[in-house]
Design a protein that fits this description.
- The chain is about 20% helix and about 30% strand.
- It contains three helices and eleven strands, in the order H-E-E-E-E-E-E-H-E-E-E-E-H-E.
- Strand 1 (about 30-35) and strand 2 form a beta hairpin.
């Protein structure tokens, strides 16, 4: 009986300590506790606004849980005793980061070319990935990795090798936004 009384005393002390630390740090915890420790599915908010929603065991991240960042990004992971075992990061726009073959925000990603190589001086329009822009056949569209031929409905490399067949959504995007070669109606660059 004396042991049980000490155990209850320590649980109360730990609960008080946990609450005092949360008050001091500005963190918050919403969920169940066992013997003063976060336990089960819960939500923990760090002072900087990062939120952990997921499973706890004896006060540690344990099992499935997600870190949600103030910028909207999310890190979905499996945790073991507070240590991440595996996970994946998803940006606020739902783009999932991939550690292999990552081509977002790289030289191959045409959307960010000017950020990588600098903005052209006033009066020098930046129409393509390379300056000067690669030559493309008449009545085709520059796709950044080659050109789209609307008659063949195919994207070719700049040296004429078949590269891919775009979807109808990609064709619409290409014909509205990509630089055209020859007699095609001029289009706005992106």
């Amino acid at each position: 009986a004396e042991y049980m009384g000490e155990s209850v005393h320590w649980c109360r002390l730990l609960t008080s300590l946990h609450k005092a630390m949360s008050d001091w740090s500005g963190s918050t915890y919403v969920g169940s506790e066992v013997h003063g420790w976060p336990q089960g599915r819960a939500k923990f908010t760090f002072p900087d606004g990062v939120i952990y929603e997921g499973e706890f065991d004896k006060g540690e991240f344990h099992g499935e849980g997600t870190l949600i960042f103030p910028n909207g990004g999310r890190y979905l992971a499996t945790w073991e005793r507070g240590v991440m075992q595996e996970g994946r990061y998803i940006f606020a726009d739902n783009l999932q980061y991939e550690s292999n073959n990552w081509e977002y925000c790289t030289e191959k990603d045409r959307r960010f070319y000017t950020e990588l190589s600098g903005i052209q001086p006033s009066g020098q329009t930046h129409l393509a990935n390379t300056m000067p822009a690669a030559e493309i056949p008449e009545n085709t569209y520059d796709t950044g990795n080659g050109y789209y031929d609307p008659i063949e409905q195919c994207i070719f490399t700049y040296n004429g090798q078949k590269l891919s067949y775009p979807s109808s959504e990609e064709i619409e995007w290409i014909t509205k936004r990509c630089r055209s070669g020859g007699n095609l109606k001029a289009t706005k660059g992106v």
